[in-house]
Amino acid sequence: MTNDLSIVHLITQAGPIVKLVMLMLVVASIISWTFIFAKYKEFQSAFKVTNTFEKRFWSGIDLNELSRQIGSAHHSRCGMESIFHMGFQEYKRLKEQSGMEPMHVVEGARRAMQAQYTREMDVLDNHLPFLATVGSTSPYVGLFGTVWGIMSSFQALGNMKQATLALVAPGISEALVATAMGLFAAIPAVVAYNRFSNNADRLATRYETFMDDFTTVLQRQAHVSMNEKSSGS
């Protein structure tokens, strides 16, 4: 490739519309990569927290002690920890109220967990729509720049008496760079979106399974507490 057809030269010699398209694609790509690295760390942390918490929860630790540790001001809760903490705190609050049936206590705790589950999933899904948008639209944006560039090149050739490959090649090459940049922005965004969406689904399944299991544990505790109160009275 000659110096006249180098990537930098092609970009600098492109028309204003094609340059604008390229700039949009570069900005979209930079933002996408920023989100990709941030979400990668976020999902790594979410899986680590989930694995660690499940081991502690099923180790036989007292639930009051576990809630106290997680609820500490020095502990940053997230994911399954937050779901457990919100559910157990609501369970204890309702259980202390007089006249509350065990079923209502457990249902209240379940609603608290469901609300926190929704908030946690919103956090995990954050920025994923942007990656999906970049992945689906960037090739078409790049194609628009290519079509516009080729159209401008042929319009310029209309004023010349003789059109040769040497005259057509630079203009077409400039336009094709826009398509290449569109693909460069789209491919990582699509791969990352699919990967992160799969991770979010896996975590959602684990959160839902935990809520079902924890609800069962709370049901047993609620009935035991009711029986103890009945025996004491």
From TrEMBL:
The chain crosses the membrane at residues 20-38, 128-151, 171-193. Its main location: membrane. Residues 82-208 form the MotA/TolQ/ExbB proton channel domain. The keyword Protein transport does not apply. It comes from the Bacteria. Pfam families: MotA_ExbB (PF01618). It is found in: Cell inner membrane; Cell membrane. InterPro entries: ExbB/TolQ_transport (IPR050790), MotA_ExbB_proton_chnl (IPR002898), Tol-Pal_TolQ (IPR014163). One of its GO terms (cellular component) is plasma membrane. It is a multi-pass membrane protein. Belongs to the ExbB/TolQ family. The Tol-Pal system is composed of five core proteins: the inner membrane proteins TolA, TolQ and TolR, the periplasmic protein TolB and the outer membrane protein Pal. They form a network linking the inner and outer membranes and the peptidoglycan layer. Part of the Tol-Pal system, which plays a role in outer membrane invagination during cell division and is important for maintaining outer membrane integrity. HAMAP family: TolQ. This is Tol-Pal system protein TolQ. It comes from Cycloclasticus zancles 78-ME.
